[in-house]
């Protein structure tokens, strides 16, 4: 049941992305030949005006086929003939709708929150060695780690993980004053909690009642964190802290969402956890699509801006054949990567 639900959610997120392109293209007067939910063989279709609305067999994608998007067209309403600012809006609309969907889901989930954990220190576990005026004190608010802003308590463990076992520069706010504790050896240690030994940082944080503004702030911070997580992940890939085996595609994402549902204590909790993870995926789709990678929306935006710059400086445009070849090559490489990641996902599930 959870696998089917996850596949439907994944398909819905892609449909939302394509609907963003569709609705903005219509608003900008660009001709849309087909709007499809799903890929592959055609199941159902209906022609309304100039646009064919389709439902296809495979719920792993979708598309908004605009006149003159990938080929030359003499149609005055072709995408290629639209003003630059219109093409820009159409290209970023898909990512914008995904981001908005993720934000709305998170805000809805946070609307029922009654309390939350702050980044203010309420105390320390027994044996914590870094207490005192030169180190950490009760009432200190953790603001940043190695110069990276801490928005939520969960950021602390994430940023500490990125720092590895190295000492960190901890920015705190104490009595209204901002202090930087340089090269603080804050590492995981063994602490005893409720009779059990666990690896922890030894910090305890205060809990506050959540008002309406707190819920809005927490929801927005969580969504911003989704964006930051994408860039942190890319950083880990580039620095070697993460490798190919850590990548996941649609198969791996559905598997993880299914596990999240199955491991939840109740059906309601499962739905909430799956929705939260869906919001995370929606924002990830938005950010990844806007990266300047050929064949993605971000790659097309890059060429649009580059063409505008070439027109201003050189009075020339990049040949459409060259741009098309770059996007085609990027698409082939992306498809090969997706196949490799899918095979790796299946291998991880089987083993």
Tell me roughly what share of residues is in helical segments: 40-55%
Q: Can you count the beta strands?
A: 10
Gyration radius from CA atoms, angstroms? 24 Å
Largest sheet: 4 strands, antiparallel
Give, in order, the helices and strands: HEEHEEEHEEEEEHHHHH
SS content category: alpha+beta
- Average predicted local confidence, pLDDT: 89
Distance between the termini: 22 Å
Strand order of the largest sheet: 5-4-6-7
Low-confidence stretches: none
Described by the principal axes of the CA atoms, the overall outline is: globular
What portion of the residues fall into strands of 2 or more residues? 15-25%
Count of individual helical segments: 8
Molecular structure report:
The mean pLDDT is 89. The protein has 351 residues and is an alpha+beta fold. The protein has a four-stranded antiparallel beta sheet, covered by helices on one side. The chain has a two-stranded antiparallel ribbon with strand order 1-2. A two-stranded antiparallel ribbon has the order 3-10. The two termini are 22 Å apart. Helix 1 runs antiparallel to helix 2, helix 1 packs across helix 6 and helix 5 packs antiparallel against helix 6. The protein has eight helices and ten strands. The protein is globular and about 75 Å long.
